[in-house]
Amino acid sequence: MEVDSRAIWVLTCVVQGLRDVWAPKVTSAQLWSQISCSHSITTQVLFSSVAALLGSAGQANYSAANGALDGLAAHWAAQGRAGVSSIQWGGWAGGGMAGGDAGTAARLARMGMPLITPSQGLAALASVLSSHSMQASSSCMAAVPVVWSTFLTRFQKKHQAVFSEFVASPQSTAAVPDLPPPASTQSLAAHTMTAVTRPAEQAGISRDVVHSQVQSAIQAVLGEVVGDMQPLMAAGLDSLGAVELRNSLQSQLGLELPSTLIFDYPTVTALVDFLHPQLISAIPDSDSTTGGHSGTECPPDPLSMGGYPALVSQPGASVSTLSIGVFALDVRSPHGALDSISGKDTAGVIPLSRWDTATQDTHLQQTSVRFASVLDHVDAFDAAFFGVSSSEAELMDPQQRLVLECTTAVAMSQPQQGNSSSQDCGVFVGVSSTDYARLTDKHLSSVTAYSATSSALSVAAGRVSYTFGFKGPCLSVDTACSSSLVSLHSAVHALRAFECSAAVNAGVNLTLMPDTPSKFQKAGMLSMTGRCQTLEQGADGYGRSEACVAMWLQTLDDRSSSTDSHGMQLLAVIQGSAVKQDGRSSTLTAPNGPSQQEVLRRALLDAATQPNDVALNQLHGTGKQACMLLLCLYRWAQAACLPIQLCLVSKPMFGIGMLMTPGAETYVMTSCLTYRLLLATSICKACCVCLLSCTSQDDM
C-alpha cells in the first residue's frame, strides 16, 4: 500500500499541536453553540480560512480545524438556525498571521491570492450580512481576491472539478490558454519518462538543465534569483516555503523527494548535486546502447547510500587500526546518577547559589526555565593537596578543579604512575563554558597575576599536564556539546599515531550563570521541565545538566586480553571514531542529514565494523535526530542482507538530562557492561561518532 507523502504530517503531528489550533476554532464554536442555542439570534458568522478549501502545506491541523468550523456552520443551518455562515477568509493586509509576515504575504501573492485590503474585507462581510437579511445566504463561502491567471496555473490540475467554471470563462481562457506547464518542466519530465535507450546527457538531462530548473522553482517561491552557494533559509525561505519548493520540484521532476530536502541540501549547488544523479538513475539502462551491465548485478555496498560513493582507503595511506582500551574511569554527576544504571531523576529547582530564577523572569520578560540537574559543592576544593595557593584557587574555574580531581583519580590508579613511560601521556579535555570568567569579571574590580590562567579553557588541559609532568600532546577542545567526544577522537588518533603511549581524556561542564540558558530558551531549545523526553512526541527541548568525567586510555597489543601488561582491568575497547562538520547547512546552527550519515559511515569504516554488529545505541539530547541515524543503520544492513538488532539507551533513562559532557556517554555505556558493541553519537553542529566494544561481567 502506498502512502501519500502529504499524509506524513497527519501521522506524525503532535497531539498538543492539534489541540492548540483546534481550541480557538472548534472548541470555542462548540461552547458558543451551547450558550446560544436557547436564544433567538438572527445572524451568526464564523470566521474560517481558505485553508479549509485548498489545504495548506505543512499545516494540515490548521486546515482541519477550519474545515470543522465550516462543518459546524452547515450542521447549524441544517438544524434550522437562521443566518448562519462560515466565511473562508484569505490573508488580510495590515496585520494578522499573513499580513504580519512579509514572507507569507509574498508567497500568497505568488499563488495568485493577494492579501485582502480592509476595505475589501469589510465589503465582503457587509455582503454576507446583507444576504442574511434577504435569507439568501449559503452556510459556507470564500472571501479571497484571486488573480485567476496565476492561481489556475497552480491549482487547476489539483482541483479540476472545483475550478472548471472559471477555466471555461472567456476571461480565464484568454488569460491562461489551456494552462500548459512551463517548457522547462515539460522537458525534464518528458526526458525522464521517455529516455529509455539513451544515456542521460544524450537525453538532454545535463547538469545545466537541472540547475536552470532548480533556479526557476526557487525564483517562483522566493520571487528572486539566489546565489548558487547562498543558503536558501538565509535568502528568506521559511519552513512553509521549503515545503512549497520541495513539492514544486517533486511535481516538476517526477521524483519522490524527501520531506527534509531543503534542510539536507540547503543551497542551489547542493540541490543540483543531489537531483542530477537522481534524474539520471531514473533512466533505465539499455545493454544495446549504453553498454550496461549484463547478468547478475553486484550487491549494493551497505556503507554507500544517499548518493555518496563508498569510502575507500587512499592509495599509499597508512592508517593505524590499533584498538584503544579504557582502563580507568572517574565521574562526578548530579546526585551520583552515573554511579549506577538503576535510574535516578536528578532534575530539580535551580538553587539560589547559581542564580535567582525570579530575577530572570523580569530579564527575559517571560517565565524562565527553573529546572536543571546541577552538581553540589562545586565550590569545595582541596587546594593544598594539589599545591595550589589560596589566592589562585579562589580565581580558578571550578571546571579546572573538577578536571584536576577526576584526572587525579584515574592517573593514580595506574601502576606505572611515576615511571618514565607515564610521562609520555597526552591530555585531551572537552570544555566549552566560560561562565566563571564572566563571574570574576563582574565581581572583581582588579586584575591579578592569576587572571590570565584562572579561567582560560586551554589551561584546563595544561594544568593536568603540569601537575603530573605529562609531556604528551595537551589540548582543550571546544565544539559545544560534542567537545568531549571530539577530544576523545583526538586522543584515539594521537595514540594510534604513537604521539603518546597513554592518554587522559576528560570532559566537564558547569552552568554558573543564567546567560547561556536564557539564550537557549529564547531560541526554543530548552525544556521547561528540565528533562529530555527522548524519542517522545512530547519532546519540547533538552534539560541542562552538569558533570565531569575522566578516562585513562592506552593502546591494546592484544584485543582478546581483558587486562593490560600491568594487570589493569580493561573496561571497554574503542574500535573507531569519526568527526565531521555539517558545512554549508541551512543555517549556522542547523544540523544536516547527509553530513550526519557520512560521519556515521566513516566511524563504521574506521572501526572495520558492519552495521549489523551494532547492538546498542546511546542517544544524545532529545534523540530526535538520532532516529535518522538509526534508520541509516537499518538501511545499510538491509541493503547488504545483514541481520541487525538495535537496543536504545538514552541519558534520560538515568534522569540526568543532557550533560553537555559527552564523555559521560562513554561512562554510562561502559557501566552497562552487558553489550558487545555500542554506538555513542553526539548530534550537533560538529558531529563525532565513537564505536566501542564493552566487556561483560562474564568475561572479567
Describe what is shown at a glance.
With 700 residues, the chain is α/β, with parallel strands linked by helices. 40% of the residues lie in helices and 13% in strands. It starts with 7 loop residues before the first helix and ends in a 6-residue tail after the last strand.
What can be said about the biggest beta sheet? Answer: 10 strands, mixed
- The name of the CATH architecture of the largest domain is 3-Layer(aba) Sandwich
Radius of gyration: 31 Å
**Low-confidence parts, pLDDT < 50 over ≥5 residues?**
1-13, 169-203, 286-319, 644-660, 671-687, 693-700
The CATH topology of the largest domain turns out to be: Peroxisomal Thiolase, Chain A, domain 1
Number of strand elements: 15
